[in-house]
């Protein structure tokens, strides 16, 4: 299988692994999110990633992806474009063929284990042939996220070492392990992560793949630090940034006022995450 060695996203994450920091990967839904991510990373001299969901493809065809790819290329720091939670072969192939994306999460975790593995392998090859890096999720990361099909009714399954190894054998570049992390809001049980498991997984496959953290709502510096210790180098951030857009809509009177206020508040949040993840000054 050809591997996208010169892929910019892979280079960013490999550098983060070597330097023991993580890259803010911001889920965006609109132009303001794209601009806030880039401006925030530029202000902090941090590399960064823009994440779109397949929802963006349904909503605007390749409009938002084309805009994001253009802005990422023009940024003064390394910024790449990633498709998060692509849950069908059609979504993966549309993104891979578009020329917009540097990386794609092939999320076949709604299939049973064997089918998840075989579909992941086939789609990873498709992406690699086009120079695109691939992320996959072996266990089911519980919960639902805005723009992702709600699979919350599926039983949460934590990733074990055997499973992680089998996923690595499919040829993926990055792995999103399930170790107690949950998409969206953490319930009354609070945030309970199995760091022991994360370290075991890191010892088992950490030299072959990079780790991606999903479900970071409410994570503080201490938790993030422990996750980075366990090998996490790409940290997906959604609600923390996008709730500023929703707040601005409720407050601002004019359209330009709203857009500028939302972008600015989201940018400040991105800057804070660059500090938390220690990626500040690494671009
Ligand atoms: Zn996710």
Automatic annotation (TrEMBL):
Location of the active site: 84
EC number: 4.1.2.13
Top class in the EC scheme: lyase
Keyword Metal-binding applies: yes
Note accompanying the cofactor annotation: Binds 2 Zn(2+) ions per subunit. One is catalytic and the other provides a structural contribution.
Biological or metabolic pathway of the protein: Carbohydrate degradation; glycolysis; D-glyceraldehyde 3-phosphate and glycerone phosphate from D-glucose: step 4/4
Binding site for Zn(2+) 1: 85, 183, 214
Catalytic activity: beta-D-fructose 1,6-bisphosphate = D-glyceraldehyde 3-phosphate + dihydroxyacetone phosphate
Keywords: Glycolysis, Lyase, Metal-binding, Zinc
Chain positions recorded as Zn(2+) 2 binding sites: 107, 137
GO MF entries: fructose-bisphosphate aldolase activity; zinc ion binding
Entries under InterPro entries matching the protein: Aldolase_TIM (IPR013785), Class_II_FBP_aldolase (IPR050246), FBA_II (IPR000771)
Listed GO biological process terms: glycolytic process
Cofactor(s) recorded in Swiss-Prot or TrEMBL: Zn(2+)
Biological function: Catalyzes the aldol condensation of dihydroxyacetone phosphate (DHAP or glycerone-phosphate) with glyceraldehyde 3-phosphate (G3P) to form fructose 1,6-bisphosphate (FBP) in gluconeogenesis and the reverse reaction in glycolysis.
Family that this chain belongs to: Belongs to the class II fructose-bisphosphate aldolase family.
Record's protein name: Fructose-bisphosphate aldolase
Organism annotation: Gomphillus americanus
């Amino acid at each position: 299988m050809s591997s996208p060695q010169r892929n910019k996203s892979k280079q960013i994450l490999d550098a983060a692994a070597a330097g023991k920091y993580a890259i803010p990967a911001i889920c965006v839904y609109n132009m303001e999110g794209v601009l806030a991510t880039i401006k925030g990373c530029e202000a902090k001299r941090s590399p960064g990633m823009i994440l779109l969901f397949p929802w963006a493809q349904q909503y605007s065809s390749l409009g938002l992806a084309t805009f994001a790819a253009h802005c990422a290329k023009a940024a003064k720091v390394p910024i790449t474009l990633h498709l998060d939670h692509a849950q069908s072969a059609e979504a993966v192939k549309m993104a891979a063929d578009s020329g917009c994306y540097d990386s794609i999460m092939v999320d076949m975790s709604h299939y049973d284990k064997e089918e998840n593995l075989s579909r992941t392998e086939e789609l990873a090859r498709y992406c690699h042939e086009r120079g695109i890096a691939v992320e996959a999720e072996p266990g089911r990361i519980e919960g639902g996220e805005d723009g992702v099909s709600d699979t919350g009714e599926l039983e949460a399954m934590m990733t074990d070492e055997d499973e992680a190894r089998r996923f690595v054998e499919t040829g993926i570049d990055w792995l999103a392990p399930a170790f107690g992390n949950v998409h969206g809001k953490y319930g009354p049980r609070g945030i309970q992560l199995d760091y022991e498991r994360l370290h075991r997984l890191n010892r088992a496959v950490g030299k072959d793949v990079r780790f991606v953290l999903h479900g970071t709502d409410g994570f503080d510096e201490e938790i993030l630090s422990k996750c980075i210790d366990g090998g996490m180098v790409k940290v997906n951030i959604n609600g923390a940034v996008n709730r500023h857009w929703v707040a601005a809509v409720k407050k601002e009177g004019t359209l330009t006022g709203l857009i500028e206020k939302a972008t600015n508040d989201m940018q400040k949040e991105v800057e804070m995450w660059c500090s938390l993840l220690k990626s500040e000054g690494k671009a």
